[in-house]
Write a structure and sequence with these properties.
The protein is built from eight helices and eleven strands. It has 224 residues and is α+β, with helices and mostly antiparallel strands. It is globular and about 55 Å long.
Length: 224
């Protein structure tokens, strides 16, 4: 497939697309030379590859949509309210982590945790509800069954939503959560990747500590 061959030339940069392609969840809305508009079949999400300004004329601005650009100038020209540069981080090892932290339990979250996740994140409640319904949102719990943090698998199949509640920080919980999530990805034969905001140095350090490699170029989320 021409698209796959093109993406393979810079796999770490485009790693966020491979799992969706593997599952058949992407449609090609536009293709011309090495310029593409791709759409997530199950979500209002578009992926824009290339530097041709014609691509912008083919996109509908809709406040329900999310757009991931791989070209900074196009992302800025599209001019939506929200603009978030991120690095893709990719882990190629399929060796699972030994979880040696016995102070916490890792388990799925149910609907009773929607409000607390919303309180500690910027995600729409409908998205949180969907992640819980799809069994893609997990929490860490202490020995008194108190939620200490959470992590999830995004609809584009990336590791994300990582958050540790303030009173439980600096106890290794972020590492505990992500190690468990990596093991979950390995068990389910998912490509291990995450996206980290340009300004989040602490998270970048965590990813590198866990064996992820940072892509050499940014990509850019835009939404209204």
């Amino acid at each position: 497939m021409k698209l796959i061959n093109f993406l393979e030339n810079d796999k770490e940069r485009y790693i966020c697309l491979f799992q969706l392609l593997k599952e058949g969840k992407i449609t090609i809305e536009y293709e011309n030379n090495n310029s593409y508009i791709l759409k997530h079949k199950e979500d209002e999400m578009y992926f824009i590859i290339g530097d041709d300004y014609k691509l912008l004329d083919l996109l509908d601005k809709d406040d329900k949509n999310y757009y991931l650009f791989f070209n900074k100038e196009l992302a800025e020209k599209f001019n939506l309210k929200n603009y978030m540069p991120v690095y893709n981080f990719y882990r190629s090892s399929n060796k699972k982590f030994d979880i040696d932290n016995t102070n916490y339990l890792f388990k799925l979250l149910d609907a009773s945790y929607q409000d607390i996740v919303k309180e500690h994140s910027n995600y729409p409640k409908s998205y949180i509800k969907n992640r819980i319904f799809e069994k893609k949102l997990f929490g860490s719990f202490d020995k008194n069954n108190n939620l200490t943090g959470f992590i999830g698998c995004h609809s584009e199949k990336s590791i994300g939503m990582l958050h540790v509640l303030k009173e439980y920080r600096n106890k290794g919980i972020a590492t505990f959560l992500e190690k468990n999530m990596i093991n979950y990805f390995i068990d389910n034969n998912y490509i291990q990747f995450c996206q980290v905001e340009l300004s989040n140095i602490k998270s970048m350090n965590l990813q590198e500590k866990l064996g992820f490699k940072k892509a050499n170029k940014l990509c850019y989320w835009c939404w209204d």
